[in-house]
Write a structure and sequence with these properties.
metal-binding; 27% helix; Rossmann fold; zinc; oxidoreductase; 17 strands; alpha/beta; globular; 2 domains; Zinc-binding alcohol dehydrogenase; six-stranded parallel beta sheet; NAD(P)-bd_dom_sf; 332 residues
């Protein structure tokens, strides 16, 4: 039986958001009930859902509801305070946790390590909302690491691309980022990128910085289908390309000759699933470690009250040149 009610964000049509009531049941021994404090809107996959650019049968993250394309309750990065805890959950009332749960002000969730994790004392709730996207970026770099002295290129400076560039830059001799928006390029330079260019300029800059070799590793995190073609064209001999983007139902046409075959390039798909030696728990710990080292305060463009969630999505959709991270704030 429900012991409370809540409100949750539902995608009900292209660019249409509703806040719907949802019952909240008391936690079972292995569950916790969380009152949300912050959640982050993903400008990548979540905006594909918002715009209706998904296919029936596409995989949903855990704890989502409904179906693609609509209606669906979709999301995966909500932070909050534990207000009730089952005796076998391993959590206590008052702890702050990151959850893989859609945007909802109160909810009960199974306390599995891949769904719920404690927020470290040194990480505030707004920063903690970046955990999942940081883990996605980290997974891309783990799939194809940048070796010391190599040239890395990152297409797209949304949150995933920006974190990917910052992580790759810990080893790379030069990191080049590619984005069509000036503010994102400027922020990437602030965070340590060697060069930040518009898409049409990337080839000349990469070959200049790499002394004609091309990029050793290219991460495609823009979600723009033409970027994968550009990645093939700028990669060095035996270079590696990591496709982090999810393209939804957009076609991705490629011209493979001559670069792809003659340069013996490799394209790796990256998805935040378990790898050898890097299971979900370990990547979560590493991602929180990165968030403690790499401030994301400048990546938060706006805070919007949960009640105005529809306005937040419209803002992200309408003004990507000025909006990077949009955080929903929940009432105390």
């Amino acid at each position: 039986m429900p012991f409370d009610t809540s409100r949750a964000v539902w995608f009900v049509g292209p660019r249409q958001i509703e806040l719907r009531e949802a019952p909240v049941h008391r936690p079972e021994p292995y569950e916790i009930t969380v009152r949300a404090t912050r959640s982050l809107i993903s400008a990548g996959t979540e905006m594909l859902v918002y715009r209706g650019d998904t296919n029936p049968g596409d995989r949903m993250p855990p704890n989502s509801e409904g179906q693609f394309p609509f209606p669906t309750k979709y999301g995966y990065q909500t932070v909050g305070e534990v207000v009730a805890a089952g005796e076998d959950s391993g959590f206590h009332v008052g702890e702050h946790v990151f959850t893989r749960h859609p945007h909802q002000d109160l909810f009960t969730i199974e306390a599995r390590p891949e769904y719920v994790v404690r927020v470290p004392a040194g990480v505030d709730d707004s920063t903690a909302t970046f955990l999942n996207l940081t883990r996605v970026a980290l997974t891309g770099v783990l799939d194809v690491p940048v070796k010391v002295g190599e040239t890395a290129v990152v297409f797209g400076q949304g949150i995933v691309g920006m974190m990917c560039a910052r992580i790759a830059g810990l080893n790379a001799a030069a990191t080049v980022v590619v984005d069509r928006f000036e503010k994102r390029r400027a922020l990437a330079l602030h965070y340590g990128a060697r060069a930040a260019v518009e898409p049409q300029d990337v080839k000349d800059v990469v070959f200049e910085l790499s002394h004609g070799r091309g990029a050793d590793v290219v991460y495609e995190a823009s979600g723009a289908p033409p970027a994968l073609q550009s990645a093939i064209e700028i990669a060095a001999d035996q270079g590696e390309i990591v496709a982090i983007s999810l393209y939804g139902n957009h076609e991705v046409p490629l011209r493979l000759a001559p670069e792809f075959h003659f340069r013996r390039l490799r394209i790796t798909s990256s998805q935040a699933t378990d790898q050898a030696r890097w299971n979900w728990v370990r990547r979560t710990e590493a991602a929180f470690g990165l968030l403690e080292r790499l401030s994301v305060a400048d990546m938060i463009s706006s805070h919007v009250g949960f009640a105005a969630a529809a306005e937040a999505y419209e803002l992200v959709d309408r003004d990507p040149a000025n909006v990077l991270g949009a955080v929903l704030d929940y009432p105390a």
